[in-house]
Specification:
The longest helix is centred in the middle third of the chain and has 14 residues, at 302-315. The protein is globular and about 75 Å long. The strands form 8 sheets. Strands 28, 29, 30, 31, 32, 33 and 34 form a 7-stranded antiparallel β-sheet that branches. A 6-stranded antiparallel barrel has the order 12-13-14-17-16-15. A 6-stranded antiparallel barrel has the order 6-7-8-11-10-9. By secondary structure, it is of the alpha+beta class. The termini are far apart. Among the domains are: 116-203, Thrombin, subunit H, CATH 2.40.10.10; 322-383 and 407-423, PDZ domain (Pdz3 Domain); 442-577, N-terminal domain of MutM-like DNA repair proteins (Alpha-Beta Barrel), CATH 3.20.190. One of its GO terms (molecular function) is serine-type endopeptidase activity. InterPro entries: AT_hook_DNA-bd_motif (IPR017956), DEGP_PDZ (IPR041517), DEGP_PDZ_sf (IPR046449), PDZ_sf (IPR036034), Peptidase_S1_PA (IPR009003), Peptidase_S1_PA_chymotrypsin (IPR043504), Peptidase_S1C (IPR001940).
């Protein structure tokens, strides 16, 4: 009796509820979350054609089930849906009802619809420098991304959306006019840029977006923007999955960030994320791309956004986020704490190294135990209380400050508690993570091209996998070296332009220059000055790996113009070195 009769006909292709879908096995991965997997949401650079490949099923068509008189409404399709669902199941159209940028309220669920008219589409023409050939620029290209209007006739978007910009335009929702925009400030570290439009017509009928508080876990968020897949505005929804210190890929910094499960695709960059009250709680900027991860997007939260805005209003320019110029070690091991003279009730982190160029180098020392920052106690794992039931890295406290602010630090040194007031400054690295829009510097003598190592230069030379392809010594300096003086730079021989005078030196590539005629080379400007003013018979360059290059001074200077003409190079040095 328990057996049921099998129905005649073809076996259905779709599995029954007792037969769940089997996903293909994924390849094992040692580390799903890594910088190489985090991807900045690229701006859309070309139109995408959407095609369907559905075909008629073979065999006899299935009979349609009989519907009752009042059928339950089917859920909307996941793609190209003209409306979105709210928590009570009511659909709110996104095509109208919010004219002038004002907030519309759903009368049933009392949920506020975000101010769609304040979200704009950003068009940018980029012209990137060629870091491998620093006297040239690459071919220009166009991209589109998202942005939104804030108070003071300003527009916010992502910094990578207008990086190396030549021209920026914005277009309002429902408009056919693109307005020229002016870039007011670019915050590379926090990946935020501020624009404005001089045309008064652009600001007619647009109300600025209001910012909300930092959301809690599981709070609903709605991401609005102009992603790939269409030309009109797009709305995706999700919840806040995680709040912690994140790695900002574009700026190579670590700041507070939100992880959400709403879809964030190419073109969403710079678009706002709204809460249920219609207030902006963040800016979409990057996502995690991995075969084992789905719907992991990241949003710049309001504390970081407000820091950027207030920094610009206070200094009329972006000055950056300060950091504490130290490297520290966790103190979770009880034997380590006892050896460092810590009492059972004391907690903190041990200073490994202090940046020689940072102001705190005058008061802090290696093996000091940092107990608190601005009166907030630091745990042995480097975290501080954040909200109820949450902890966060103490670097969050530092990032809330501004460059030039003072902070109180309590340290334990030789079992004695000391208190210091430290002036905070922005961080500088031996190999900078970005050039802040400036063209690369270079100097050429006798076919030897000297330039400065930076992360964009390494990416240009070795591709996006430069962390694996670049020379080990350059990577070691990138990860571990600290500046010994404020004007120090890592100068290398980028390449040798072949000529009769440099025979035998053609294979020298990306090798650091240590000294010239026995004098250390601190930066590229100093190298150019020493070469131009040299009266010695020979130019002797001491390179890394115990290599030397010797050139006759007069011959080298005389041969340089012909080499420049042969390779169509306009000048022997960049504009910033001529100044």
């Amino acid at each position: 009796m328990g057996d049921t009769k099998r129905k005649r006909g073809r076996k259905p292709k779709n599995p029954t509820p007792s037969q769940p879908l089997q996903s293909p096995p994924s390849s094992p991965s040692d580390d799903v979350f890594s910088l190489s997997n985090i991807e900045i949401i690229p701006s859309t650079s070309s139109a995408v054609e959407i095609t369907t490949t559905a075909s008629r099923p073979r065999g006899r068509p299935k009979k349609l089930p009989k519907h009752p008189d009042n059928p339950d409404p089917l859920p909307p399709p996941p793609i190209l849906s003209p409306c979105r669902h709210v928590s009570n199941g009511t659909a709110i159209g996104v095509g109208g009802g919010s004219g002038g940028g004002e907030l519309a309220v759903d009368p049933i669920g009392a949920r506020v619809v975000p101010a769609m008219d304040a979200v704009v589409k950003v068009f940018c023409v980029h012209t990137e420098p060629n870091f491998s050939l620093p006297w040239q620029r690459k071919r220009q290209y166009s991209s589109s991304s998202s942005g939104f209007v804030i108070s003071g006739r300003r527009v916010l978007t992502n910094a990578h959306s207008v990086e190396h910009y030549t021209q920026v335009k914005v277009k309002k929702r429902g408009s056919d006019t693109k307005y020229l925009a002016t870039v007011l400030s670019i915050g590379t570290e926090c990946d935020i840029a501020m624009l404005t439009v001089n045309d008064d017509e652009f600001w007619e009928g647009v109300s600025p977006v209001e910012f909300g508080e930092l959301p809690a876990l599981q709070d609903a968020v709605t991401v609005v923007g102009y992603p790939i897949g269409g030309d009109t505005i797009s709305v995706t929804s999700g919840v806040v999955s995680r709040i912690e210190i994140l790695s900002y890929v574009h700026g190579s910094t670590e700041l507070l960030g939100l992880q959400i499960d709403a879809a964030i695709n190419s073109g969403n960059s710079g678009g706002p994320a709204f809460n249920d009250k219609g207030n902006c709680v963040g800016i979409a900027f990057q996502s995690l791309k991995h075969e084992d991860a789905e719907n992991i997007g990241y949003v710049i939260p309001t504390p970081v956004i407000q820091h950027f805005i207030q920094d610009y209003e206070k200094n009329e320019a972006y000055t950056g986020f300060p950091i504490l110029g130290i490297e520290w070690q966790k103190m979770e091991n009880p034997d380590l704490r006892k050896a460092m003279g810590m009492k059972p009730e004391q907690k903190g982190v041990r200073i490994r190294r202090v940046d020689p160029t940072a102001p705190e180098s005058g008061v802090l020392k290696s093996s000091d135990i940092v107990l608190s920052f601005d009166g907030v106690d630091i745990a042995n794992d480097g975290t501080v209380p954040f909200r109820h039931g949450e902890r966060i890295g103490f670097s969050y406290l530092v990032s809330q400050k501004y460059a030039g602010d003072s902070s109180a630090i309590k340290v334990l040194r030789n079992s004695e508690i000391l208190n210091f007031n430290i002036k905070l400054t922005s961080h500088r690295r031996l190999i900078p993570a970005h050039n802040k829009g400036r063209p690369p510097s270079y100097y050429i003598i006798a076919g030897f091209v000297f330039t400065i190592v930076s992360v964009p230069y390494l990416r240009s030379e070795y591709g996006k996998d430069y962390e694996y392809e670049a020379p080990v010594k350059l990577l070691d300096k990138l990860l571990h070296s600290m500046l010994q003086s404020p004007d120090e730079q890592l100068v290398v021989v980028s390449q040798v332009l072949v000529s009769d005078i440099n025979i035998g030196y053609e294979d020298i590539v990306n090798t650091q220059v240590l000294a010239l005629n026995g004098k250390p080379v601190k930066n590229l400007r100093r190298l150019a000055e020493m070469v131009e003013s040299c009266d010695d018979e020979f130019l002797k360059f001491d390179l890394e790996y115990e290599q030397i290059v010797v050139l006759r001074t007069k011959t080298a200077k005389a041969a340089t113009p012909d080499i420049l003409a042969t390779h169509c190079i306009p000048s022997a040095m960049s504009v910033d070195l001529k100044a």
